[in-house]
Amino acid sequence: MKIIKVAPFLNGVLLQVDYITKNTECFIKKVGSGSYVKTPYITISDRTIHIKNLLNDMDYSVFLQDAPLRSNNRLFRCGDYVGSVINYIHPDDMTYHPSGMCPASPSIIKLPSGRLLVSHDIFFYLMEQNITLVHYSDDYGKTWSYLSTVTPCFWGTLFLFGENVYLMGMDGEYGDLLLYKSNDEGATFSKPIVILKGGNRTIGGPHKAPMPIINYNGYLWTAIEYGSWDIGGHASGVISIDIKKDLMIAKNWIVSPFIPYSKQWEGTVLFDGAGFLEGNVVIRQDGELCNILRYSTGSNYKNYGKAILLSINKDKPNEKLSFSKVINFNGNNSKFTIRFDNKSKKYYTIVNRADEENTGKRNKVILMSSSDAIIWEDEAILLDYSNYEEDYTKLGFQYIDFIFHGDKILYVSRTAINGAITFHDSNCITFHEHTYI
User: Fold this and answer.
1) Where are the domains of the chain?
2) pTM reported for the whole predicted model
């Protein structure tokens, strides 16, 4: 037997296992204390149990036993995790080694059945970073269950096309760009195809965060970069495919040439380490395509608040992108997703809002909107932990992806809180909602 998901909260934890019987026993102890103690639990479903009356801000170790079988040990810490915890991994939990121990890169979609799917990878610096987990919710985010594991997959993006679910990601950091297909709503995935051969952080390779994949002008489009931080930055491009062609045939995909960042472009900042990545392909109101990219502008707050806009030739997907302009964008130093809402006829994005103390802060989350994808305005503060008792270097809500559902925005966060290694090295994926109309 195996514990396949952990979700702590205030004074309790949910554990999902591969099976439970009436003879299953639970044993728990405080990390660093003596022996395990048999602990009562409540059965929530045929695979999920709830342990109550635990202490917050305390590390626990737990395992289940159904003699003679014993599960793996899992670690957790109870506390206020904000929103709903989709999945949690304690910093000292080695369950997913050698991929890592930090859940990250969330992606969310809604299936025609109404089921929500969320994927996330598991990373840590210089580790293999090649496992992605998929979870589902049938009650619009109130509860979540583990569904499947995809490997190798890193920086994965879920998307729907036709009747199938697809997962686009890497086989590791800066590795091969892969595409998986599922015909059973994400329960299983096919063997992947290789769209673009990769490299590594030393020589450079593809960079493909969970960014929107859009259907426009007879093609699917998504942004991609090539390079690495170690070699000085990334160049920007797009990949696309004719929607009449089979997505699972690699030669059908078109990879544009890559355009490097240039400090000679009008409006760029005076910072030697500036660069762009994690672009959003956006359909402009005039029908043209553009790529709006995260802009790394350094720690000087005078440079903060800008994004790069590149033009895409919608009729020639194999053509190199071209520089258009630098736009004001108060949330540029972290990954953001831009989506168009057909109800309000506005573009929306969720960003990290930094301040003069540190432009890398990720403890304040803002919803912004725009009527033209150029001029952006604040709509709402979604999360504000700028005055939280925990040091901002240990707390972050980041790499947020979202969808529209009725009058709500449903969003998922790579979250670091309650004992994460750092704000960057997260310990859980959390689900949130906001009424925006």
Assistant:
1) 3-77, 84-435
2) 0.95
